[in-house]
Design goal:
Elements lengths: L5 H12 L3 H20 L5 E6 L4 E11 L8 E3 H7 L8 E6 L5 H29 L5 E10 L2 E5 L4 E4 L15 E12 L2 E7 L3 H11 L1 H4 L3 E9 L3 E8 L6 H6 L4 H9 L4 E6 L4 H8 L7 E5 L4 E6 L4 H5 L4 H10 L2 E6 H15 L7 H9 L5 H5 L3 H4 L7 H32 L1 H21 L10 H27 L1
Helix pairs in contact: 1-2, 2-4, 5-8, 9-11, 12-13, 16-17, 17-18
Amino acid sequence: MVLRDLVRVVEQVGKDKGISKELVLDVVKSAMVTAARKKYGSQNEIEAVINEDQSEVELYLFKRVVEDVADEYSEIQLTEAKKLDENVGIGEELGVRLDSEQFGRIAAQIVKQVIIQKIRDAEKEIIYNEFKSRQGEVISGICRRIERGNIIVDLGKTEAVMPVREQIPGENFRVGDRVQGYLLEVQLTQRGPRIILSRSTELFLMKLFELEIPEIREGIIEIKGCARAAGTRSKISVFSNDRDVDPVGACVGMKGARVQNVVNELKGEKIDIVPWHEEITKYVCGAISPAEVVKVIVDEAHKRMDVVVPDDHLSLAIGKKGLNVRLASQLLGWELDVVCESKVSEKLTKARNDMLQIVGMTDTIAIALYQYGIDSVQALTTHDSETLTQIPGLTLEKANELMVAAKELLERQAESGADIIQDTEVTQPESRKSAQALRLQAAKEAFRTTRPNQYIMPTEDELESRNERFNQVISEIDRQLEEIVGE
């Protein structure tokens, strides 16, 4: 089959679609083979060869050389085969050139459709591979349209989508606006590559800092962590590998120029740049900024910290709707409980008085145990002696002595409570009901005081689950109180 200006057409298609010349030629050969098999049978072996010098596609049908022909499309008689190749023998395969000009209009349409489809598929795969290799970069495009809140961004060769969940709340784009986003994901679908952009992910903020600050690109400064409430506030922790380079100062820039460029791109989002420290107590002091930290009580076993702040800094540390402490918690990966100095003093006094009931307990050891996270006799018995030796000034012998004394104290308290209940049941049936009611009322009040701390700021699902469990327990206690009163 002769194709006029075949080489020129192939080169032009490759240039327009960004496809290599060799790939386009393979598509043409595949299309010709498909059309030939429609005519001569799909079971036959057909091969296409492109003669670029003559701009011709040559088709060859391979036939087996036999004495008697049973199928003219798959077999050829020996005498006919000798005319084509004198050295051929019985049982050998011989390629017979086909006259592709006899394909007809239908075959030509098949060739055209196959070429168009193959080129489209090749173009989709090239676009997918190109953007897949750029995943994790910040790219720009033009807002072409908005569909159900999703922003469709024109990237030149293809389009990307920015779903509503990946947009910054309160940010609006119009058709024709420049849109910059983080290339979050590239998917290959039946309709072509699906490219997803994001402006709400913390990775976008980290990438903006990397683009804006050369020290980060060069590896002098590292971004250790990032916590973000898109559109409102973000916290990013940085560390310098060079002692002569201040990581926070380098990120802020002269008169705040560097960080201001990032803020402008995020439409005024507040950004706290926090110095990273390997020591968690120093790290949390920067993470909870702008509030000042008086003291930090660490519970390493449960990755939990009580952050003590001045009374007048409590609201500043918590932030609006608990945002500041929540971001600090996400940045550190620890659970934070922000408390004021006055409450800590009350808790310390209560814990110290409770611990001093143990025989052999001193005021110094009680305070040390409280700072270690042990604030009651019951809490002390849940630890082992070897763990308690980590507390400065507490030997293994002293730890064993205190553990035994604490368990004996709990046993005495339990026996004392059992005797009172037993005497009440035998001698005063009516008083027994009153005692039960009083105990239930006391349990109810005690349970109220153990309600999850409002400053920890759990997620909405966790808060709803906690409140539901809390209400269920209170309802059960109220029900039992009503039964006792009814009796």
